[in-house]
Write a structure and sequence with these properties.
Blueprint: H1 3-6, H2 12-19, E1 24-28, H3 35-46, E2 53-59, H4 62-71, E3 79-83, H5 89-97, E4 106-112, H6 117-121, H7 147-153, H8 156-167, H9 172-186, H10 192-203, H11 207-225, H12 227-241, E5 247-252, H13 255-268, E6 289-291, H14 301-306, E7 314-320
Parallel strand pairs: 1-2, 1-4, 2-3, 4-5
Antiparallel strand pairs: 5-7, 6-7
Helix pairs in contact: 2-3, 8-9, 8-11, 9-10, 10-11, 12-13
């Protein structure tokens, strides 16, 4: 299996251009098949920065870690791959930095929030309404509640809330009622096919039906993996890990994620002027970060034609400012 057959990474050139500027520790918090990491490491090698660089790759998925190990085998002296959730980034990076790496700055963090092509296309993972399989959707398939657990144990109101909150599905109540009705009539809903048929029956035909299917499956995946809760946590912790001039890059794929990233980055990059109406001449506290991308970076037409999943990708990047009197680490 090649890396591209496992997962074709999006916005690779843009990620490399915006992150591979200097040596240091780079953290790929959503390693996947290792495509972004390989490009970063290759760029650092070409720039003569490989000796002063190290990559930490984190992923919950055993299949991803195995594929990434193959993809990154030519860089094995400069990498450490860890099974874990990027919400534990502080502990994972802290443990690895003890010893020889403790003086090396954290120069870059990448979070690609999308589900990999391999996960979507593997029926046994249950991520897609287009693939028959068990209603699972766990990123780490070894533990935690499945989508089937949520669908079969949640009451109608809770299901409707999940579909509306995480999928922004306007027909959430109708779909939740249909799910609970079929559940009472036929017993537990166990497969992607069963759930898809229920959603289709509740939403009619046409393009709107397909959108509802996508939204319901997205909502369940987010709920199963607590994606928004984890993202909120890792944004704060990741920013705290960065050294001066270090950058954090986040690629999001739907409005809920992108809105959270946009607002978090904006708040970090704004000075604190205190309560309105005070009229201060200087801010109470100057922002410790600056916005690198004023607007989200998106894929061009060439990339979208090659990889349709790049169409919805949005990349945002911030950089930690130098503190007063601090020199630049420029190796």
């Amino acid at each position: 299996m090649t890396n591209e057959s496992y997962h074709l990474p999006v916005l690779v050139r843009e990620v490399v251009r915006l992150l591979a500027l200097r040596g240091g520790i780079f953290i790929d918090g959503t390693l996947g098949g290792g495509g972004h990491s390989r490009a970063l490491l290759a760029s650092l090698r070409e720039s003569g920065l490989e000796e002063h660089s190290f990559l930490i790759g984190i992923d919950q998925d055993d299949c991803a870690l195995r594929e990434a190990a193959r993809t990154l085998r030519t860089f094995e002296r400069n990498i450490r791959l860890v099974k874990g959730n990027f919400s534990d980034i502080v502990d994972i990076v802290g443990e690895i930095r003890r010893g020889a790496l403790k003086e090396m700055p954290v120069s870059g963090i990448l979070l690609d929030l999308g589900v990999s092509s391999f996960q979507i296309d593997t029926p046994a993972r249950g991520f897609s309404y287009l693939r028959p399989g068990p209603l699972d959707m766990r990123m780490d398939s070894s533990s935690g509640l499945t989508a089937a657990d949520i669908v079969n144990t949640s009451d109608e109101r809770s299901l409707a809330d999940i579909f509306f909150r995480y999928g922004e599905e306007r027909r959430s109540r109708r779909i939740a009622a249909a799910v609970c009705g079929k559940r009472s009539e036929r017993g537990p809903i166990e497969t992607t096919e069963e759930l898809a048929e229920i959603v289709k029956g509740a939403t009619g035909g046409g393009e709107q039906q397909l959108k509802s299917l996508a939204r319901v499956f997205q909502a369940l995946r987010i709920a199963v993996n607590d994606e928004l809760g984890v993202l909120e946590h890792v944004l704060d912790d990741g920013a705290g890990c960065l050294s001066s001039l270090g950058r954090m890059a986040v690629i999001s794929y739907h409005s809920l994620e992108d809105r959270m990233v946009k607002h978090f980055f904006r708040d970090l990059c704004e000075d604190d002027w205190g309560p309105r109406g005070v009229g201060l001449r200087e801010p109470l506290k100057k922002a410790a970060f600056r916005m690198v991308t004023r607007r989200a970076v998106t894929a061009d037409e060439t990339e979208v034609k090659k990889n349709s999943r790049a169409r919805s990708a949005k990349l945002r990047v911030i950089e930690k400012k130098l503190e007063d009197g601090e020199g630049e680490w420029n190796r």
